[in-house]
Design brief:
single chain; 495 residues; mainly alpha; 7 strands; 49% helix; 5% strand; globular; EC 3.2.1.4; 6-hairpin_glycosidase_sf; polysaccharide degradation; Endoglucanase
Length: 495
């Protein structure tokens, strides 16, 4: 046993030494900026305390054509569409970050709460009409054909909704998860708002469960290929029920999780242990539910805890069952675009699960490799440090952090002159010259994480290369909690 531990430690030390490390990273500074980014993604009427001042009011009539107020929320990425499925996941992750690490955020906590409430206020609007859940605002094809500021956009702002006749369980259940998780965040602060979020979470979950089906089938021509649901909707239903159980401990939701897990197991057994993001909730469910079981010795816990352990073994670089890839510089990779979403989301789960393992005085066995809680933290930190500049290019992938960071991100508002600098209207095609220009973006979207480098640690810094240069809310959201943890442990960590 001691030889195995020594082997694991030696492998870990070797892997951590693959990349030349900078002297230190200012995790507190990165945390502040990662939260500030969300202000740059705001849609609607901006508040008087808006800190990202180059952004102005936008999309002030969303929903008005059908008599519903759908103003607010977030633009998901560098476009001007409100895709509510990934938006809701981003809010869930911000809420989970605060629930786990909020006490470590210090003066950044109020800004994190504002970021959550900006999202939940909108989700309340999107679920305000009985029998409908609004899944998207804006025509994505029209929007993607234009390069214009959100303040200028004149493309169609069509609202798309799911219903009993045209179901969308994944988007509805993810909204329920976001509302339930956020209700816990606000419970000690504003009991009335918390209760409102929780009541709506239960209603939206019931709607998602009563009318099962994927929004691919009902809204496919508009949500695909942008945010098609590839993993099915069953994981979101279980995810939503798990969050509702965590929020109110009603046995019905626990029974729902247990009874429906077999359906999810059929997918997980196909190799989804390391899947977690806006589309797939598998690893997140196992980590979340394992925590709910940690102190109960519940016999139903075995599949969740076992699968959470398999998640660790799927991600750990030295594990014999690792299913992800790593670049030569040490960045975690999975197939698909916007790769940093995987590095941040899986790092969050590693960090959270390390806490649960520590509380249970437990380690994870991956064949002959022993994964201790400290090893999970070490892997998560390697990803954060890579993102912040400890990589072969010595480049930060967070805009505004460090001396070298992406200058030409794929983001309309950032790449076009601000309303302050150019108050005249820029129409749909009027921004094309700015898109094709090699000049740096005139407005810094501070805190934005781009999709990141390719698997060879190269980065083109090109607006046209949107797979690598576009920021998204769901890349940033998981990193907020991770940065809070490392900020709080800054003085005790050696580099």
């Amino acid at each position: 046993m001691s030889q195995q531990k020594r082997y694991s430690m030696l492998v870990g030390m070797f892997l951590m030494g693959m990349v030349e490390r900078v002297a230190s990273h200012d995790y507190g500074n990165a945390l502040s900026k990662s939260i500030l980014f969300f202000e740059g993604q705001r849609s609607g009427k901006l508040p008087s305390n808006q800190r990202m001042t180059w952004r102005k009011d936008s999309a002030l009539r969303d929903g008005y054509e059908i008599g519903v107020d759908l103003v607010g929320g977030y633009y998901d990425a560098g476009d001007n569409v409100k895709f509510n499925f990934p938006m809701a996941f981003s809010i869930t992750m911000l809420a989970w970050s605060v629930l786990e690490f909020g006490k470590l955020m210090g003066t950044d906590l109020p800004h994190a709460l504002e970021a959550i409430q900006w999202g939940t206020d909108y989700l309340l609007k999107a679920t305000s009409v009985p029998g409908l859940v609004f899944a998207q605002i804006g025509d994505p094809y029209g929007d993607h054909n234009c390069w214009e500021r959100p303040e200028d956009m004149d493309t169609r702002r069509t609202p798309y909704a799911v219903s009993g006749q045209f179901p969308g369980s994944e988007v509805s259940a993810e909204m329920a998860a976001a509302l339930a998780a956020s209700s816990m965040v606000f419970r000690p602060i504003d009991i009335g708002y918390s209760a409102k979020l929780l009541k709506r979470a239960k209603l939206v979950f019931d709607f998602a469960d009563k009318f099962p089906g994927s929004y691919n089938d009902s809204l496919g021509p508009w949500v695909c290929p942008f945010y098609c649901d590839y993993s099915g909707y069953q994981d979101e239903l279980i995810w939503g029920a798990a969050w509702l159980f965590k929020a109110i401990k009603v046995p019905y939701y626990w029974s729902y999780v247990i009874e429906n897990t077999q359906k999810l197991e059929n997918i997980i057994n196909g190799g989804s242990f390391a899947e977690f993001g806006w589309d797939s909730k598998h690893a997140g469910i196992n980590v979340l539910v394992s925590r709910l079981l940690a102190s109960s010795n519940n016999p139903d816990g075995s599949p969740f805890i076992a699968n959470a352990d398999k998640f660790v073994c799927s991600v750990l670089p030295e594990s014999p069952t690792v299913s992800v890839s790593y670049s030569p510089g040490g960045l975690l990779f999975k197939s698909g675009g916007s790769n940093l979403q995987h590095a941040t989301a899986l790092s969050f789960l590693l960090l959270v699960y390390s806490r649960y393992l520590g509380e249970a005085n437990r380690v994870v066995y991956c064949g002959n490799v022993i994964a201790t809680p400290s090893r999970l933290i070490q892997v998560a930190r390697s990803q954060v440090d890579y993102i912040l500049g400890s990589n072969p290019l010595k480049m930060s992938y967070m805009v505004g952090y460090g001396n070298k960071f992406p200058q030409r991100i794929h983001h309309r508002g950032s790449s076009l002159p601000s309303m302050d600098q150019h108050p005249q209207h820029i129409d749909c095609q009027g921004g094309s010259s700015y898109f094709s220009s090699n000049n740096p973006n005139p407005n810094l979207l501070i805190g934005a994480l781009t999709g990141g480098p390719d698997i060879n640690d190269s980065y083109a810094d090109s607006r046209a290369d949107f797979v690598h240069s576009e920021p998204t809310t769901y890349i940033n959201a998981p990193l907020v909690g991770v940065l809070a943890h490392f900020k709080s442990h800054q003085s005790s960590q050696k580099v």
